[in-house]
Design a protein that fits this description.
The chain has about 220 residues and is an alpha/beta fold. It contains eight helices and seven strands, in the order αααβαβαβαβαβαββ. β1, α4 and β2 form a beta-alpha-beta unit. The chain is globular. Bound molecules: S-adenosyl-L-homocysteine, 3,4-dihydroxybenzoic acid (DHB) and magnesium ion. The site of S-adenosyl-L-homocysteine (SAH) has 19 residues, from α4 and β2.
Length: about 220
């Protein structure tokens, strides 16, 4: 049952990609290079990457912050929404991931827009105050840090900033309050922090597809 669903979700993702996302040398080679370097294939799916790009474009984003770079796949999608003088800062603590990402971003012609910052996100975030506010912030690093990243995202926001967080459903495990999975507990702390925050309007959407059953949270900063 589970397997059949995953097969169908993947086939439909394939169909959606064929309809809306033509072959793309920069994105395709970014995934190829990540795979060759042994990075895990935990990037967003193509249609999710395009959703991030579409949201950033709809907002007219000029400054984007990403927490969790991996091989730069979502980074490339997001950076493509930016104008020529736009800026994207992406935080990554694994030097190998950052190196693969930096090459992928350069190959995509986005090196002048994107800055990969090496280090633990919680160490890098305080240094971003002078570069704030960001128009869109994508949270996609370690799940145990999500609640902290949300608080930093708020600090680095303006009224109208959109915060998007990946992996907020985790196969439905998220509803188990007694879960012994620290990632699940991390996402639950994030969801609780968002729900308790009066300065935002928030929702979450379950997703299925080539990356399995998961979800995305959308948090609009209103300033209260
Ligand atoms: N956004 C990427 C996927 C990110 S995967 C995409 O969709 O293409 C999560 C990444 O966060 C991994 O590369 C991991 O090394 C990084 N990461 C995990 N913990 C981190 C931390 N504390 N600080 C910075 N990066 C971290
Ligand atoms: C996994 C997926 C992700 O999108 C991510 O950011 C981290 C981990 C996973 O499937 O393990
Ligand atoms: Mg993710």
């Amino acid at each position: 049952m589970e397997r059949m669903s995953k097969e169908k979700w993947t086939a439909v993702d394939q169909y959606i990609s064929e309809q809306f996302i033509p072959p793309d040398p920069a994105l395709d080679s970014a995934l190829q290079a990540a795979s060759s370097a042994g990075l895990p294939a935990i990037n967003v799916a193509p249609n999710q990457g395009k959703l991030l790009m579409l949201l950033a474009r709809a907002m007219g984003a000029r400054k984007i912050l990403e927490i969790g770079t991996l091989g730069g796949y979502s980074t490339i999608w997001l950076a493509r929404a930016l104008p020529a003088d736009g800026r994207l800062i992406t935080l990554e603590f694994d030097p190998k991931h950052a190196e693969v990402a930096t090459k992928n971003i350069a190959r995509a012609g986005l090196a002048h827009i994107v800055n990969v910052r090496l280090g633990r996100a919680l160490d890098s975030l305080p240094h971003l105050i002078s570069e704030a506010p960001f128009d869109l912030i994508f949270i996609d690093a370690d799940k145990t840090g999500y609640a902290d990243y949300f608080h930093w995202a708020l600090k680095l926001s303006r009224t109208g900033t959109l915060i998007v967080a990946d992996n907020v459903v985790r196969d439905g495990k998220i509803i188990d309050a007694n879960s012994s999975d620290e990632n699940v507990q991390g996402i639950r702390r994030f969801n609780n922090a968002v729900a308790a925050e009066p300065r935002v309007i928030a929702t979450a959407i379950q997703t299925v597809g080539s990356k399995g059953y998961d979800g995305l949270a959308f948090v609009l900063v209103t300033g209260g």
